[in-house]
Every structure is written in C-alpha cells, then in structure tokens.
C-alpha cells in the first residue's frame, strides 16, 4: 500500500474514502485531465521500462521481447489508441427518436461510474492491472489498484511508481494478499474489475453484491484448440507453440489442450516438438527466451498433473530455478486432473480422436472457455465451430493474436467471466451509458393524457 500501512484496516477504508471524495470533486471527468493522466502513464512506461522489465524478469523470468509484446508494448498501444479515440468515445451517441416522441432528440451520454477497484493477477502483472486502469482513466473514473502479491516485485514497483506519475488523490495502489483484498472488498466501490481464478471470482462477486456493485470478472478455464485435417500443420504447430509456451504457459488464453484426428496426430506432435526445439533450443532450460513458474505451489500443482500420464515430450523440471520444460502429454483420461482443471502452465495434452466430428461435442461438454482456437482451411468447418460452440473469444488459424486488435472486445462468457474490455469496450465497460431524451415544448399533443377515449387509443395504436 503506497500511502498507508497495509495491515491497518482503517487505513484502507480511509484511503478508499479519500479516492471517492476525489471522484466526487468532479475533476477526473475533464477530458484534458484524462488525457494528461494517460500521457503520464505512457511517460512512466517509457522512463521506467528498465525497472518494469527487470521486475517481470525477476517475477516470471520474462525475456525483454516477450515482456514488451505482451506487457509494456501492449499497454502503450492501448494508451495511444485510447488517446486517439477518446474524444469520439466521450461524445453523445445519437439514437433515433420515434414519431410519438417527436419533436425531440435521443442520445446516449457516457458518464464515469465513480471509483473502480482493479484487482490484478500475477501472470501478466503489469498489463492486467494497467490496461483496466487505462479504461478507468479514459472513462473519467478514479481507481484503487490491487496488484497480485504473487508477482511481488512488480507489485512493489507499481506501488512506488504510480504515485510518482499519476494523480495521487485519484489513483492509489494497495499492496497485499487475501487479508488486504478482503478489507478492500468490504468498501463501497462503483465497479470492481477482477482478473484471476474462478474461486476468487465468486468471493469478489458475493462481496460486490453486498453493495450492489457491478463487476467485471476476467477469469480463465480450459481453452481448447481444435486442429482440423485441412490445417497447414507446420504453421499451426508454430502458432500453437508460440501461444502455449509464451510465459511458460501461464497465460489465461493459452491453448489448454489440443483436439486432433488420429490420422494426423503423429504429424502434429512431431511438428510441435520441432517448433519447441526451434524456438527454445534442444535445452530449453538454457533458453533466455523461456520463462519460469511463478512459485513452488504452482510448480507442484503442475508436477502433479503429470502423474500416471503418457509424457511424449519434455517433462524435465527444476523446482529451484522454476524451470518446467515444454511438455506434451498424449491422450490423458478425460476425467484425470489435467483434463479437469485449467493447466495454466507449460503442459499441453493432445487428445486424439477417431473423427474430428467428436471435437465440438467434447468442447460443449465442458464449461464455456475464455478462448477457443480452431486451425482449419475449411470454411464449412470454421462456420460449424463458430455456430455450434460458445467461447469468450475465438481465433481461427492462430493463437491469441486477437488480443493485439484494440477494436476487439476481450472477455469471457459463462464460467470464463463476464464483461469485456480493451479499446472502446473498456471505456464503455467502465462508463454508465446514460440515456437522454430531450423533448420540445412545442406540439404538446394530448393523446397520451387522460381522459382516454376509443379514438385516442386507435390513434395511439397506430403511432406507438
Ligand atoms: P492471483 O493468485 O494473482 O489472484 C488474483 C487476485 O485475487 C490477486 O490480486 C489476489 O490478491 C486476489 N485474491 C486471492 N485470493 C483471494 C481471496 N481469498 N479473497 C480475495 N482476494 C483474493 O491469481 P490466480 O487466481 O492464480 O490467477 C490465475 C487465474 O486467473 C487463471 O484461472 C487464469 O486463467 C485467470 N486469468 C484470467 C485472465 C483474463 O484476462 N481473463 C488473465 C490472467 C489470468
């Protein structure tokens, strides 16, 4: 916590109430002020990129390029996109006015919600906290940020940097773990934006219900990856490996398991193995581009998934350094833990099917995933998957490339979450889209006023 002792609960209440007072004062609504704060955030990333990259490396072993693509560069482009479009997003959005309400005009006017609590997860500890902050600032809100305690170096760094670059009264960082988050959740917010696992998502939602606070839940789940026989296997393998082993598989939208027909599964497995070696070398342990597992608890969880499984590639581990080799498991039982829980690590199960027709029912037998990947050269199969499955986000013929498009809303559905953000969808999510209708004093037609008559009713039936 930047301005108070994290163990002192009344300090948390005071801090939140101070931020709420700032919002009530109204200055965070000003367009120029919002842009200034966004520019300050941009300056922070540019001036402190070495410190930020170093924290990402210490917490997760992220190499500079990967950290740039998925964290700093990602947020910078979100900021630029937001500054470029903010004026337009803030404008009243014209709607048509029905004849019965003429003369008049109708529009939707975005207004800030108030004070937003943003709770981040550890796997992309910068992006997952700061991208929602970009949306919160853009929408004119104040915010309290709670970084994940598991990525402790980034948490400490942000608690130092945010007060130096952003308005201290409007944006504060509260560091801490369950205790501090629990205390924060007791406070009144106008929106809670949570990224993390399903179990804590339920805790957040029930705490929010006490204040009737709306929530955005960015959760995870098992994201399937279907490889159809028509797919280009070499390109498919490269894209699967890129999206699975970035951040050592600790990505909410990483492919969790692959579904492929037996007729091409050997070819795919070999192609994936070759790409792993191309990307990370024969000894990924020595690759500077390969990340590490966040902590021992997660390491042991992943080790447990391999018990009694058919490991066909990888499997080497070093708990001291956090190294967990890219690992392929062939045909695990569907009721084994590895196929029941979100893997969230560098293990990829490959399920071989007699026919690709089995893939869609298998996907639909599970909770709705955050992402679904289908590799196919067949438009018919692509359409079949799109029409017959449900997922937060779909990418055809690639991994999480869809995340690079700020015009695409990102979010889950069902168990993978609720509400989306990035670009305008983030602005809209953290705004109230207020309905406004303005009537004229002219032509005050009395049809709608009592006393009613059959004649009035017959006219009303025609115009309404
Ligand atoms: P985590 O352990 O970092 O927890 C997330 C946040 O919840 C932290 O800030 C933590 O302090 C807080 N928290 C933990 N326990 C709590 C409790 N009992 N009460 C109140 N707050 C508590 O992250 P995690 O949960 O391990 O995250 C992994 C999950 O997040 C995976 O399921 C992953 O798919 C999902 N995820 C989703 C996205 C997305 O954008 N949809 C992104 C990243 C991760």
Secondary structure: helix percent: 40-55%
In the predicted model, the low-confidence regions spanning at least 5 consecutive residues are none
**Assembly status:** single chain
Which architecture of the largest domain per CATH? Answer: 3-Layer(aba) Sandwich
End-to-end Cα distance: 56 Å
Report Rg.
Answer: 25 Å
Count of folded domains: 2
Quick one: biggest sheet? 7 strands, mixed
Mean pLDDT: 96
Please provide the count of β strands.
Answer: 20
Quickly give the structural class: alpha/beta
Q: Which fold does the CATH topology of the largest domain refer to? A: Aldehyde Dehydrogenase, Chain A, domain 1
Strand order of the largest sheet: 10-13-14-9-8-15-16
Report the principal-axis shape.
Answer: globular
CATH superfamily of the largest domain: Aldehyde Dehydrogenase, Chain A, domain 1
GO molecular function: aldehyde dehydrogenase (NAD+) activity
Domain Aldehyde dehydrogenase: 28-436
Keywords: NAD, Oxidoreductase
GO biological process, one term: aldehyde metabolic process
């Amino acid at each position: 916590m930047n301005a108070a002792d994290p163990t002192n609960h009344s300090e948390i209440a005071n801090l939140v109430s101070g931020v709420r007072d700032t919002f009530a004062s109204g200055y965070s609504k000003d367009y120029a002020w919002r842009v200034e704060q966004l520019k300050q955030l941009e300056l922070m990333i540019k001036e402190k990129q070495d410190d930020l990259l170093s924290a990402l490396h210490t917490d997760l072993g992220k190499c500079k390029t990967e950290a740039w693509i998925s964290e700093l560069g990602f947020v910078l482009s979100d900021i630029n996109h937001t500054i470029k479009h903010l004026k337009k997003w803030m404008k009243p959005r014209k709607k048509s006015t029905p004849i019965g309400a003429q003369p008049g005009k109708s529009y939707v006017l975005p207004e800030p919600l108030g004070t937003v609590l943003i709770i981040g997860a550890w796997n992309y500890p910068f992006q997952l906290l700061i991208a929602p902050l970009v949306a919160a600032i853009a929408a004119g809100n104040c915010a309290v940020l709670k970084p994940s305690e598991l990525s402790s170096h980034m948490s400490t760094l942000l608690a130092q940097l945010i007060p130096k670059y952003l308005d201290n009264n409007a944006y504060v960082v509260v560091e801490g773990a369950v205790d501090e988050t629990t205390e924060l959740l007791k406070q009144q917010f106008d929106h809670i934006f949570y990224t993390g696992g399903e179990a804590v998502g339920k805790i957040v939602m029930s705490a929010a219900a006490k204040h009737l606070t709306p929530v955005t839940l960015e959760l995870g789940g098992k994201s399937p990856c279907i490889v159809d026989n028509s797919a280009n296997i070499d390109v498919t393998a490269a894209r699967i490996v890129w999206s699975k082993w970035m951040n050592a598989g600790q990505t909410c939208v990483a492919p969790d398991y692959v579904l492929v027909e037996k007729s091409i599964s050997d070819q795919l497995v070999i192609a994936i193995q070759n790409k792993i070696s191309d990307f990370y070398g024969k000894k990924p342990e020595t690759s500077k581009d390969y990340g590490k597992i966040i902590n021992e608890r997660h390491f042991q969880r992943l080790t447990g998934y391999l018990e009694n499984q058919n490991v066909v590639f990888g499997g080497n581990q070093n708990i001291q350094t956090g190294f967990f080799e890219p690992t392929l498991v062939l045909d695990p039982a569907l009721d084994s833990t590895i196929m029941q829980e979100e893997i969230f690590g560098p293990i990829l199960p490959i399920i071989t099917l007699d026919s690709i027709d089995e893939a869609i029912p298998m996907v639909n037998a599970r909770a709705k995933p955050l992402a679904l990947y289908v590799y196919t050269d067949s438009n018919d199969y692509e359409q079949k998957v799109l029409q017959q499955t449900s997922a937060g986000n779909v990418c055809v013929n690639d991994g999480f490339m869809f995340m690079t498009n700020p015009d695409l809303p990102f979010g889950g559905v069902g168990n993978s979450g609720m509400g989306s953000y990035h670009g305008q969808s983030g602005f809209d999510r953290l705004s109230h889209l207020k309905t406004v209708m303005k009537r004229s004093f002219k032509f005050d037609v009395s049809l709608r006023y009592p006393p009613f008559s059959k004649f009035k009713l017959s006219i009303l039936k025609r115009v309404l």
